[in-house]
Amino acid sequence: MPSGSPHHRWTLVSRVMVGVLSLLALGGVVVALASFAYGRSAARQAFDPLLVGAAQDIAESISISDGAPVIDLPVSAFGLLSLAPDDRIFYAIHGPDGALLTGYDGQDLPERSGNPAQTRYRDGAMQGDAARFVTVSRLFSERAYSGRVFVTVGQTMQARRAMALDLTRRALLLTALGGIALIVSAFVVIRSAMRPLAVLTRDLMHRDPYDLTPMQAGGPAEVTIMVGAMNRFMGRLDRQVGAMKNLISDTAHQLRTPVAAIRAQAELALEDEAQRPQRLDRLVLRTRSLGTLLDQMLSRALVIHRIDNAAPTPIDLRDIALTVLDSRDHELLAPGKDVQLQIGEDAVMALADEISLTEAVRNMLGNALRHGTAPVVVGVSVDGDIAAIWVQDTGPGPPDAVRAALGQRFERTAASKGNSAGLGLSIVAAVARAFDGQMIMANVPGGFRVSLTLPLKQQDTP
C-alpha cells in the first residue's frame, strides 16, 4: 500500500496527542534532573550541619595540659553522625604544624590559603566510596602552646544519596500523576475541539452527491472559515454544473426547431424544382441563424466557465475596444456599415477577465450592427470612479418595455426577424455581474447606447 494511503496518515487528534506526550516526556526529563539536583542540595543542607556540629563538638573538647593538647572525644559528636547508620565515619585532628594528633591518617588538610578560621568543605573518597569532609579549627593562645588545631570529620554519602533519590522519586511520582491528569484532560479537550470537524465530516459523508447547497457554518472560527471556503467552492461548482445543464437544455430545446426547419427546407427544395431558389434562400437563412445560435451558446458557455475559473486582472478597457475592432468580425457580420472608435489617451483600468470582456463587447457590437442604425461607435469613458466600455448607434433603440427583458437568455424582439439567438446581451449582463459591474441601456444625445460599467481601478503611482 503506498505511503500516501489514508490508512497510513495520522489523525489530527493523534498528532496533537503525540505532541503533548513529547512535551510531557521532555518536561519529565527536566523535572527529574531538577528534582535530583534539588534532592542533592537538600541532602547537603541536611547533613552538612551534622558534620559541622560533630567537628565543633570535638574541637570544643580539646584542652591544653603540660604544653600539649589533650583530646577527650565527646560521645555526642558521634551521636549526631549516627543519624546515618549505614555510613562510615572519619575523623582526624592535626596540630598547627600539620602533625596528626589523633584519628585516622590518609586525608590531607584543606589548603590553608585564605582565612584558616573558616569552615572548609570538600568532597573526597573514603576506602573507595564517595565521602563528604568538613574541617574546623580552634585557636589556642597560651604561654605553653600557641596555634590552631584542625579537626576534620568525614562521612560517606549513602544517606545523602538515599535522601536525594527519595525526594526525586516523590517529585517524579507527583509529576507522573499530574502528567496523567494532563494527558486525560488534553485528550478530552482535543476531542471536544475536534468535534465540529467530526460533525462536518459526517454531514459531508451523508450528503447527496448532487447537493451543492451551502453548509451550516458552526463551531470555532477556524471551522467557520473552512466551511465558508467549502461553500464558496461548492457555489462555483454549482454554477459550473448549472451552466452545463443550461447548455445541454438550451441545446436540446433551441436546436430542435432550426434543425427541423433546415431539414424541411432541404426536402422541399429537392421535391419542387420551381420553388428551389426560394427554398435555398430560406435554407441559407436558417443555416445562418443556426450558426449564430451555436456561436452565441458556445460563447456564453465560455464566458460562464471563465468567470468562475479565471482570476480577474487589471485590464485597460481601451485595449478591449481595439481588440474587438482589429478582429474585423463586424465587416463579415454587416458589410458596409460604418464602425468608429472613440477612446482617450489615458488608460482606463478595471479588474476583469480579458477573454470574457472581449466576448461581451463583441456581442454588444454585433447586437448594434444587427438591430441598430449606422454609424456604430465603440467607446471607452470614465465617470467618477466608474469605468465604462460602450457601443452606440444612431437609432432610437428598443421601447422601454422591451429593454428590461433584453438581458435574459433567448429573449428576442420583434425586430430581430429571426436573425438573433437572444443570447448576446445576456452574455454582457453575466460578465457585468461577475465583476461587480452593470449593463446599462439608455438613450443618449445622438442615439442609443449599451454600456458595460465596471469599478475603476486606480493606477499605482511610482
Automatic annotation (TrEMBL):
**Transmembrane annotation, as ranges:** 12-38, 171-190
Start and end residues of each HAMP domain:
191-242
| SMART domains listed in its UniProt record | HATPase_c, HisKA
Using the record's annotation, list all stretches that form the Histidine kinase domain.
250-458
EC number(s) of the enzyme?
2.7.13.3
UniProt keywords, alphabetically: Kinase, Membrane, Phosphoprotein, Transferase, Transmembrane, Transmembrane helix, Two-component regulatory system
Q: Name one GO cellular component term.
A: plasma membrane
Q: Where does it reside?
A: Membrane
Q: What EC class does the entry list?
A: transferase
The record's annotation in Gene3D superfamilies points to: 1.10.287.130, Histidine kinase-like ATPase, C-terminal domain (3.30.565.10)
Please provide, alphabetically and separated by semicolons, the GO molecular function terms listed in this UniProt record.
phosphorelay sensor kinase activity
Q: Which reaction does it catalyse?
A: ATP + protein L-histidine = ADP + protein N-phospho-L-histidine
- The protein here is known as histidine kinase
Q: Which organism is it from?
A: Loktanella salsilacus
